[in-house]
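WARN no homologs supplied; continuing
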Amino acid sequence: MRPLNLKRSRIFQMALMGSNSSLDGQEEKSAQEPFLIRAAKIALVVSLYWFISITMIFLNHYLLDSPSLNLDAPLFITFYQCVVTVLLCKGLSFLASIFPVGSLEFPSLHFDLKVLRSILPLSVVFIGMITFNNLCLKFIGVAFYTVGRCLSTVFNVIISYLLLKQTTSLHALLSCGIILGGFWLGIDQEGEEGTLSWIGIVFGVLASLCVSLNAIYTKKVLPVVDGSIWRLTFYNNLNACILFLPMMLLLGELKTVCHFDKLGSLHFWGFMTLGGIFGFAIGYVTGLQIKFTSPLTHNISGTAKACAQTVLAVIYYEEVKSLLWWASNMMVLSGSFSYTWVKGLEMNKVQVEHSPKANEKSDPGV
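OK structure emitted
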């Protein structure tokens, strides 16, 4: 089972590092398939990623800010989704242990207090990421969510320089400048329309920071779980479940939930569970999209998905937005696309420069 875990880990590491190379052997295997079948598989995987990602955003916004539910307990909603993820991981691990080898691929999961403690720093960042994400979504809505939480790329550049002393090219910095310009223009236009929530903006900035830190800490602690993303997901969410309890108690959310009038509603728990399932599924389809395309294509797909998500939100909630508001979204999306493209070209250049050296070393005549 370990080789499988390492392979899946490599997929996610490539996504975090921004590499645009495919998995070893993936291109050879794809080349043996007819073009139409290969294209159909890619289209299906990308469509699945879009569907799960967009549906999850709308579903979470409904749970967090729906007048029909009227539940002011964002930490409890996030906590429950972590519980669902833990149960799904354990359930799939159990099924994989009883089914024949190869029919269900999932690592065995056993509780290990030492591992739980080792990934605690990552879990703290993870809690901040998912909590601030949901709070941002609660206060600024789906339409402005792309702009409100667009600074992850900028924080990646800043943190890479401060912690890793990695410099960024001028073209990549210009892309970050476009993102920042779109961010400030979007804030200005939300203020003009009277729909600006500064607390939502603050949560969006904090969520962006946590997304960047989460990528760094994930790479750092992966060896603790033998490179298995699913084991990391299990322990991360288990830590989150434990840490959320005192937080909900201190903020009075447990009391709010106890007095919630729809606590016995199957409709409410159905949507809550569905939100947890989609939260679990997004990790799987992200890795799947990277596997069938490339990390670069995945980032481009994510940018296009964000554009579609914004348009759908404006149509669904029957909002009217100004031309400059749309321009701010286009600036953020084009800046993100440009940054992804530039980093992909830079990575290609590095690989081309190093490949002749590798060939020289492997040449028996040298």
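The CA atoms of residues 341 and 364 lie 37 Å apart.
OK
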